[in-house]
Amino acid sequence: MAAVSVMGRFQDVYAERGLEPAPPVTIVGPEALPEPCRQLLHHRRNMTPMLEAFVGAPATLHVHAKRLSLQDYKLSRVITLECDGIPVELSSVVIHLDSLPEDLHDRIIEGAAPLGTMLIEFGIDQHSDPHDYLQCRRDPLIDSMLGLTKDDDDEFVYGRVNRLVTADGFVICDLVEIIPGPARLQAIETQRGARSDA
User: Angle 189-152-163 (CA atoms, 0-180°, nearest 5)?
Assistant: First the structure.
């Protein structure tokens, strides 16, 4: 996927907020991802429980934009995930509803919970299939969505182009997932340790 099309998936949110177009991204290999970004991105597991384990708190979903196409039954949305009030992921997600049980459709469309959480609750066997890793310079939208400030040391955030696939090979969703940079993640990790010691 070309770099321009990666961030183009967030363009509606940029336009809605009157911001400059999304910054370009650099496609990098997994070995170029700094820790702890690499451990959170370079794997084939469901991302939601990975982030919950890292922060030590359940994830909640915030939907910032969505569009439902009845023609091909796809739900496109821009979301953030927070754990204990801490933003940990910004994503553009295209969910292929026809690959999932009908019992799930209304809950997914409503944004009742993170998709990863619902897949686990419904016992749907699935895995991640990442195929590009991203380095992206921070900008006002990314900072706002990920709760970053001028005091945060990271120049870049990191991410991946991913899809969730069922055990039978059906694509559940296509995603661009962006997480904070290493300094911010290390601060979150330190906060988790402090809560554990309290």
Answer: 65
Diameter over CA atoms, the chain: 52
Instruction: Indicate the burial class of 73 (C-beta count within 10 angstroms; 0-12, 13-18, 19 or more).
Output: middle
Supply the CATH number for residue 99's domain. 3.40.1410.10
Domain enclosing residue 122, as ranges? 3-197
Quick one: CA torsion of 180, 54, 10, 30, rounded to 10 degrees?
70
Residue type, 82: E
Q: Check residue 85 and give left, alpha or beta (phi > 0: left; psi -120 to 50: alpha).
A: left
Instruction: Give the pLDDT confidence of 40-67 residue by residue, as tens digits.
Output: 999 999 999 999 999 999 999 999 999 9
> Could you report the per-residue pLDDT of 164-193, keeping only the tens digit for each?
999 999 999 999 999 999 999 999 999 877
Per the structure, how many domains does the chain have?
1
Tokens encoding 37: 């970004």
Task: Write out the E strands in the chain.
Answer: 25-28, 59-69, 74-83, 86-96, 126-128, 132-137, 156-166, 171-179
**Which residue in 154, 181, 156, 198 sits closest to 23, CA to CA?**
156
